[in-house]
């Protein structure tokens, strides 16, 4: 169509992406780059066709009910889509897209970085040297960590990212175990030497490291419940580059404090009301390694995510099915074309 789509972008994107959007679309960017309130979002969407959302936008049923009628597409800049009520969007005839695949490898890299950082005391060593100025030089017994090779890794969610983590972990000599909604084919399992567990509980008792790679849904909320955290193998640890709500965080904190678990390496953690001070204390004591939700934060990934958003918008506005359509569980097609 000859009409330029009118879009609202809720967060700043890489300059090349913003520039390209501006040439293709009537583009409004939230220059302040802080999450918009619901009222500001609704106001900013007046006369817009497309909402380019991010994880910091809460697009719940209440907000969807208030959307201007012109809005027909929610094009999420990101893979995870738990900030959008997919059922409400679907019922309202809205199309939802995301940007999978382009951030798989970078996110998997970060999972491995975190997996290494905790047992090899990476952050602790750097901090001792640089911040505390406490290094007395090499000694045979200083800064001893634990070997990763030979340990058992339990991957929860063997999708794109879980599989990319398994490939890397295999090269580090970890044995691969996984729990997933669907068992993967022998073509996926065999090169990884991966063991499938039909029971998450049973896997948690058997592995040394648990790494989460499942989307946040109603079903996966607190998948690592207090009971399951207590079930984990003594001395094991958790890696999370997915979503904080997958874990009962206070229960995780308690099990690290008690010494049952050796720690956690977290790119994501609850922070709605500030970060749990007990978690920060554990990080200060080097039992926990924390990074700032940056598993997919490479310039390359962000640019490719932006390109995927652009393709989703263009195909949709041209009347075709966008490549990265997201549907609610159980739905296979669009509710109606708006
Ligand atoms: C982004 C992410 O930081 O894609 C995801 O699920 O967590 C990250 O890539 C965020 O989603 C941007 O909206």
CATH architecture tag of the largest domain: 3-Layer(aba) Sandwich
Specify the CATH class of the largest domain.
Answer: Alpha Beta
Across the major sheet, the strand order is 8-7-6-9-10-11-12
Q: In CATH, what is the homologous superfamily of the largest domain?
A: NAD(P)-binding Rossmann-like Domain
**Fraction of residues in helices?**
25-40%
How many domain modules?
Answer: 2
Number of strands: 12
Uncertain residue ranges: none
| Global Rg | 22 Å
Which of globular, elongated, flat, extended, rod-shaped describes the shape?
globular
Q: How many angstroms does the end-to-end distance come to?
A: 16 Å
> What pattern of helices and strands is seen along the backbone?
EHEHEHEHEHHEHEHEHEHEHEHEH
Number of helices: 13
Which molecules are bound besides the chains?
2-keto-D-gluconic acid
Largest sheet: 7 strands, parallel
**CATH topology of the largest domain, which one?**
Rossmann fold
Mean pLDDT: 96
